[in-house]
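Following up on my earlier thread - several people asked me to post the actual chain instead of describing it. Fair enough. Here it is, all 125 residues.
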Amino acid sequence: MIPLIDYSVKFVFIVLLLRKCSAQTTNCSSCIPEQVTFTKSELNANFVGPTKNANGCLEMTAYCDPSTHGPKATTFMQFNIHMGGPENPKQGAISAKLICENGLWHFEKEGIKKEITEVNCLLVV
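Reply from S.P.:
Thanks for posting it. Predicted structure:
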């Protein structure tokens, strides 16, 4: 016979695990666009959304569109003033999907997640 204490330890572990999982799920729908600064400059950073994905979590798309500067205009997206964006400078628009996680917006690339608080677009000459 297994002592009663083993069952209570397992029960407490399961309850804590369920609380953690439900907190993560609930907290992926609490982000608001105003948590991210979309810097206005020669090439304005913009966004579309937020919308709920298949998991019920919020996501929004940040983008840089250099089309007003001509068809060959090259742009680069940066995060948090100093951090490289989703791709190298290129001609045309650049976009990045931001996902709400733990009440904060994140960008993920190659399995690495970064919290995003600012998006800016640079016109490359």
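The first helix runs from residue 4 to 26. That should answer part of your original question.
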